[in-house]
Structure formats: structure tokens, C-alpha cells
Amino acid sequence: MENSEFAKLFWQIAELLELKNENRFKVRAYQKAAQNIENFSDDITGVFKKGGLKALENIPGIGESIAEHIEELIKTGRIKKYEKLIKEFPRGFVEMMQVPGIGPKTALLLKKKLKIDSIEKLQKASERGLLKNLPGFKEKKIENVKKGLELKARSKGRFLLSEADEYVKAIVGQLEKLKEIDQILPAGSFRRGQETVGDIDILVTSKKPGPVMDTFTKLPQVERVLAEGPTRSSVILKNGMQADIRVLEPSNFGAAAHYFTGNKQHNILIREMAVKKGLKISEYGVMKGNRRIAGKTEAEIFAAVGLPYIPPELRQGTDEIDLAKKGELPKLIETSDIRGDLHTHSSHSDGGNSIEEMAEAAKKLGYEYLAVTDHTVSTRVGGGQTEKELLKELAEIDKLNSRLNGFRVLKGAEVDILPDGSLDFSDEILKQLDVVTVSVHSNFKMPREKMTNRIIKALHNKYVNILSHPTGRLIGKRDPYAVDIEKIIKAAKATGTYLEVNAYPERLDLSDVHCRRAKEQGVLLSINTDSHAALQLQLIKYGVLTARRGWVEKRDVINTRPLEKLLKLLYAKRK
């Protein structure tokens, strides 16, 4: 099983326990375990096979009982506790709870009053106007349910980049062991670093495709085989995603890599350029009449039409070709350019690790600094701290920094932007911090103009450094709140505030499009993980991928600077 499969089960157990009004600490334990497993860098099954229950219990958030559940699932393919819980609810009921705007309490109300226990029944009831008769279902609530159903429908068949990444790593890792494979490359939207992925395309070269096909169709990640042929096979993975593999000749590997990476519009533009030069480009190579003149590498494909190599993340079918002709493609940021994370949480609020544990994990990544930005008091569900509690945390950071060599923990807070645009903490407290990030965590349904003004007012505070997850979206779960992002970008420029690219896989906020707009306006960015556990610091790569799709370079990101230069940027606004 992949880590995401374990995590999904524990998320569902948490939701079912919540429905039964179980102890909130028990619910939180399953939620924390699911979250940590999702972001665990090693294979959970492999950890258990190597070290047993004790090895599992060493993973943050995994206690004895949850470790036993993992053991049970690995050995038997089931968790009795989950099966017992799921039997207490109608089929489809749990899926209905995943609709944005439908939580456990609302789901129970729908079941009790209208016998709605599936997404299909909810859709029909919504279309027939039956929801308006329910207690608490005012016009705004009904509209939110409709939007939730639309969002669920839009995201159907799409998977988070992080989940696709987990499967790609597992599949490629096993195929790479085959001596019959010479080259291997995941292509498609995954290679372009899109925030969601529909399916997985894997390209290989091999002189003996038979063993490759046989191994691929029998991988443990495979749920069922759709087709198995001599050079191409298709399967459905255990998470419902389709994966295809193609065995190619080395002479056309580059052409196929370009073709199957896409996107479609980019490929069309390249083919049009080829036609003007009397060439024909396909997945089999570049042809001049009956003679193939290129195709072994992608660089050959671009060179054939007079272009430099264009990175996969930029192949969007917009203006990348025109800029490539002019030699104006950006030198995109790399994960190795990041020197520290400026948005993380510790056990002082809702994080799973101590400040010291977070610092040690950051040091292992080669970072120079880490900002601990725990929640402020208004974020009650996030264990928000009072000003008095924050001051104690700052004293702890001072002590820790006194014994850390070559590494600095920056004093920070993720401060709530209140509905009127004021901040959760006083300036007297904020001026004691190195990093002040501000976020919207409440009143998401405010009118567009009001929400925009709310955020802009916060950006004018001279102690505010970074606007975190600026649009508040959760991919597939919650649409961005109504906000004029162009005005936010301009306000950030005017006030000397930086905008975050939140690397958490469900956020990726700013989006790639907004990253590029910020860059064009001269607004600097900060790529952070919003980590709530030490393991999650490794999620930074998804923020970097999003920034790369937004044409972002190293110079556009503040946390690519060494500590001394970073501090100058953070304190510049206070002068």
C-alpha cells in the first residue's frame, strides 16, 4: 500500500468518529496520524517490514494503537475498527461528507430529515429545491452546497500532484531495477508540475519490452489491468488513477518525451513552426521528407525548429515560444536555491513537533534558518496562542539559538487578519518578531471588495512581512475566497510586503498564474511549506514547482537569500 492509502483510511476513521461524537482527542489523533503519513518521505510498509511496530511508533503522530492498525492493514488488507465504523453508516454517506460545505453535522441532518445518504441524492435534492425546507439552510447555505457539488464534480478524476508523485516514485523505483530498461521518464501533466494530475504516462526504452510489460502490470500498486500489449500497457492503480507505459526506440525517445509531456497547445505551436520549415514533428521524431533528422533527445526537437530547450513547466502554449525565440526564457528557481522556510508551526500551537525538532529537521535539509510562525489566539482550532504565550515561546527560541551553531530559528507568528482588517496581535508584540506572516482564517464568504480591503489594510501594517496563502483555496475542497488578486499584488508592491507561495499540496497558493503576475509587478515571493510537522518541510518541492510554472527565478524569492540579506528584507519595511 502507498502512504496515501493509509492516510485516507485514517482520515475517514477520524470523520466517522467525529460523527459519533467521540472524544475530540481521539479524533485529533487519527487526523494527526493521517497528516503525518501523507507527508512521510519513506514508505510506511517498508518501515514496518524493516523495524516492526517500534519503527512505526518512532514516526511522529503514530502511537501504539495506530501502529497496530497499520500492522493489521499490511498483514490482512483491512482494519476491523474501520469496517465496524463504516457499517454504521449508509453506503455513499462518507463520500457525501467530502463535498465542500457538507460536514459531519450537516450530513447527519440531511440523512435524518431527507434520507439523503449519497452525492447523487444530494444533487437531486438540490436541483429540486428540497434543501430550503431544512433547519439552518438559508439561501447562503444552499448556495454553498451547490458550489460544493460543482467543485466536487470539477475535481473528479483529478489527483493532487503530491499523490501522483507518490505513485510515480514507487512505480519508477521498481521499474528502474529491471536490467531490461535503459531509460525511463514520467511524462504528461505530472512532468509539467501541474497542481493536479489526471493520469500517469511513463516512457521507457528497452530492447526486451516483454519483461517490462509483465513487471508493470503486476506491480503492487496496480488494482486492475486495462490493456497489455507488446509495447504499451494501461492499468488502474489502487487510488483510481490510470497509468500507461510505452516502450520506445532510443532514436525517438526525445520526440516521444516532448509529445507526451505536452501540453497540447504547446505541441501544436511547435508543429506549426516545423511545418513552416518544411518539417513534420510527431512522437516518432522530426522528419524532412522521408528522412528522420532528429528525435533522440528533446533538445534536438527544439533545435530543429530553431529554439533553445524549454523546461517542461513552461510548456503552457502561451508566450513561451515567442520568448524562447528572443532568448528571454527565465532561469527557473531550483529547490536547492531555498535556504530556509518562513512559515512553519510547532507544538506551541497545532504543530506535531517541538521547535528544536523542527530546527533539527531544517538543518538536515541544509537550511540556514527556519521561522516558527505559530497561530495567534483567534485561530482557536489551530491552538492559537495568546500574546503572553507567544512571549514564552520567544524566550525558548532565544535559548535554543544560543546553542545552535550555524543555524538560526527566526521568531515569528502567523497572525490572523480579523474581519475589519486589523491584526490579532498588537504592534508592541509584532515588533519583537523577525517574521510576521498574516492570513485569513475566518469569514471566507465576505463580498469581494470587502475581503480585498480587509487584506490590504493588514498589508499596510509596517511589521507585516508576508501574506500567507493569499487566496485561501484548498484544491478540490474549497474555492478561493472572493478577492481582487490584482489589487492585492499592487498593494503588496506599494507596502513592501511579500506574497507567499504555500507549498502544502492542497494549497499551492499563490497559483502559478498569480506567481507570474506578482513577478511582472516586481513583488517578491516567499516559498514556504506551512509545515505542521518536521516531515512536512520536504513539501517545499511542490511550492518550487508551482513557482517554476509561474516563471519565477531565484532572485524573485526572498528565502533564497543568506540570513543577513534576508533579515534586511524583513526589517526594511519598519524604517
Strand order of the largest sheet: 11-12-13-14-15-16-17
| Strand portion | 5-15%
Provide a count of the helices.
Answer: 24
Count of spatially separate domains: 5
CATH superfamily of the largest domain: Metal-dependent hydrolases
Ranges where pLDDT stays below 50 over 5 or more residues in a row are: none
Mean pLDDT: 93
Give the number of DSSP strands.
Answer: 17
- Distance between the amino and carboxyl termini: 54 Å
Break the fold down into its secondary structure elements and pairings.
Elements (H helix, E strand, L loop, with lengths): L2 H17 L4 H15 L5 H14 L6 H13 L3 H7 L6 H5 L6 H11 L4 H9 L11 H17 L3 E2 H15 L5 E6 L1 H4 L4 E2 L1 E8 L2 H9 L4 E7 L3 E6 L4 E7 L4 H9 L2 H13 L3 E3 L2 E4 L2 E4 L3 H7 L15 H6 L14 E5 L10 H10 L4 E7 L11 H17 L4 E9 L10 H4 L4 E5 L8 H12 L6 E2 L17 H11 L2 E5 L9 H9 L4 E4 L11 H10 L13 H9 L4
Parallel strand pairs: 4-7, 11-12, 12-13, 13-14, 14-15, 15-16, 16-17
Antiparallel strand pairs: 1-3, 2-4, 5-6, 6-7, 8-9, 9-10
Helix pairs in contact: 1-2, 1-5, 3-4, 13-15, 20-21, 22-23
